[in-house]
Amino acid sequence: MLETSNNNELPAIPGKRYFTIGEVSELCAVKAHVLRYWEQEFPDLKPMKRRGNRRYYQRKDVVMIRQIRSLLHEQGYTINGARQKLSGEEAVVDSKQANQLTRQMIAELEDVLKILR
Question: Residue 60 carries which DSSP code?
Fold first, then answer.
């Protein structure tokens, strides 16, 4: 899921249960206002909110934020593309394309087999 090669410059995630938005900002090298924006754009990113609307992120949220950062900043995805990649919609499209390529390859191999006989 998370490619560690893309996040070598980021610090290790401490073994805590909850992280504040400031801590997550430092751990992921993303500003706090960007994190709040990403919460609106990525439905799976939902930190707990307590008194005064303070956000508390769990480890899974930090990992997801690092993956979003990698998709957007290092791999060149758009917000929509990253959202699709994370939601798995892209896997369905890739699967259909792979099936089509497989059928095409089988047909070509059968043609080659006919020629060899």
Answer: H
